[in-house]
Amino acid sequence: MPSVRPLRPDLVLALLAALAFSSLGTTGAWAQETPAPQRDRPDSLTVMTYNVLYATPDTGTVRAIEAVDPDVVALQEISEPRLRHIADELDYYFHHSDEHEANEEDTGLLSRYPISRPTRYGALLYLTVDDPIRIANVHLSPYPYEPYALRDDEMTPQEAVAQARKTRSPEIKPVLDALAKSVQEDVPTFLMGDFNEPSHLDWTPAAAEAGLHLGLEVPWPTSRAVTERGFRDAFRVAHPDEVKRPGYTWTTLTEDPDEVHDRIDFIYVAGASVSVETAYTVGLRDASPTDRSVSGYPSDHRSVVTTVSLAPSPSDP
């Protein structure tokens, strides 16, 4: 793949700042030339995670993103040519990731803000020269998919947790390790993607008593690992009642009565300056209500959107 093109001299300051914050290293993935960051720090940021589904038409994907008008989009199941085309259609900067532990070379980012530092797991973006944010994007292993095994009585909850830990812990741990410095230094950090595993915040005793999630309580390990490292589940911050607002993202296909509907696409946030304001799902209007419906929505996953407010940084006057 081509590497990042040389930056102009006026970008040296931003690049040096990015180097100071980066602990992840560069990537060989394609990213655009980076213009200088804007001067005024925004008060809020809207981010979206969206598994677009392989081989679906770009027109529907573009329509779904346009309906939200996010500042940053984390995409999964996206090829580099397709990402480039969507970025051109919507006038976004973009970055396509190489293969690593937490994806199969099918993740990419769209950003209204310059991508100042592509990284192994995502990118460092600069809202201003002095205001970096860290974005990470993952697509964890879909198989074995433990909720189906629980549905079919092939596993106990304890066995499901053990299998999920064996499958996805080696994938998410290096991502969390790479983000630890940003979280520790209170850089606004966003971990997004298709985790292919439910949340311990959803499969709770209250949800089980209400008959959700097969009536089972399961302490899913990946979501626990993420929250134990200082991240907050944006959807659950905005909607703390897991019974009234299950927030299903899997699946938009509702014809099969035996399907296990669940929330497996997440936006996690970290940083004292980051406050969750809203969070919602996007998809087709169907039997399992979608918060925002888009005509012709093409994916089998609902996307998730959150808007956060950003407190002034210490460098602001």
Overview in brief:
The protein is α+β, with helices and mostly antiparallel strands and about 325 residues long.
Q: Mind explaining what this structure looks like?
A:
- Pfam families: Exo_endo_phos.
- This is Endonuclease/exonuclease/phosphatase family.
- By secondary structure, the protein is an alpha+beta fold.
- It has one domain: Endonuclease/exonuclease/phosphatase (Deoxyribonuclease I, Chain A).
- The chain has a seven-stranded mixed sheet.
- β1, α2 and β2 form a beta-alpha-beta unit.
- α2 crosses α3 and α5 packs parallel to α7.
- It is globular.
- The chain starts with 11 loop residues before the first helix and ends in a 7-residue tail after the last strand.
Kindly list the characteristics that best describe this protein.
alpha+beta, 6-stranded mixed β-sheet, 317 residues, Deoxyribonuclease I, Chain A, 7-stranded mixed β-sheet, globular, disordered N terminus, 8 helices
The oligomerization state is single chain
Elements, N to C (H/E): HEHEHEEEEEHHEHHEHEEEE
Structural class: alpha+beta
Radius of gyration, rounded?
19 Å
Helix share of residues? 25-40%
Give the biggest sheet. Answer: 7 strands, mixed
Number of strand segments:
13
Determine the mean pLDDT.
Answer: 88
Strand order of the largest sheet: 3-4-2-1-13-11-12
CATH class: Alpha Beta
- CATH topology term: Deoxyribonuclease I, Chain A
Provide the domain count.
1
Instruction: Report the CATH superfamily.
Output: Endonuclease/exonuclease/phosphatase
C-alpha termini separation: 42 Å
